[in-house]
Amino acid sequence: MPDLSRFALNQITTPKWSMGEAIEGLRRHGIPGIGVWRRFIDDYGTAATARHLKDAGLWVASYCTGVWFNRADDAGLQAAIDENRKVFDQAAEVGAPCVVMVVGGLPEGSKDLAGQRARVRDGLAALREHATGLGVTIALEPLHPMYAAERACLNTLKQANDLCDELGAGYGTVVDVYHCWWDPELKAEIARGGADRVSSFHICDWRVPTRNMRDRAMVGDGVADVAAIRSWLDEAGYDGPVELELFSELDWWQRDPEEVVAIAIERCAPFAGALEERTA
Ligand code: ZN
Prior knowledge:
By secondary structure, this protein is an alpha/beta fold. The protein has helices at residues 19-29, 38-44, 46-56, 74-93, 113-126, 128-134, 157-167, 177-180, 186-193, 226-236, 257-268, and strands at residues 7-10, 33-37, 59-64, 98-101, 137-140, 171-176, 198-203, 242-244. The protein is built from eleven helices and eight strands.
């Protein structure tokens, strides 16, 4: 039996499954963890989700995602802060240790990328008291730069680490293979952050050719060196979730989730086991 002790399936990988079906599916396949999405929780009900997760004995790797800070005016920023506070309440209720913050891109019509990054920092700072009071980490996920305009102007692990240093306790990062594999500073930034900085490790692969904005490959089918990135996290002492997150409109989302999960276990098992004790 492979060691799947750190393995979580992010439920966006199997969008045909409702929350209840995903929980039962993971239980059936022996996957111990789940990454939950807001829309599936809303459909199923927050209390019902929490109850079912507990009953199935699943642990929650992460909650996806925070609300974008992508409105230009102060009222818009405040609205996003208020909505995010409710997101953190919901995350706490379902037992998520962190909320994955996809921070939002440029406001409509804006070219002020530096100004937007400053606005995002202000929004993130405003969440600290509420999130730390709930014990839920604000997990900053850098997105590949191709998403800078529309989804997130936080684009490298260095930027995320800089924000964590600036904002203090209560913040972490998400290292997502899809978003970070290309970054020449990735290894150094993983080492810089250390084990306690990383909230979750999202795995999948980079497909060649990439056909649209939701076209990730299954682990092993692309060009990203997942083994190398996992080894850098091992060296840093990271011992947290290894979470498969696969957006795939043209392929995996169309398949039977049973098939997706069976293949996912086979492909992710080499990366989903315990951190081995390292002897110097
Ligand atoms: Zn991710």
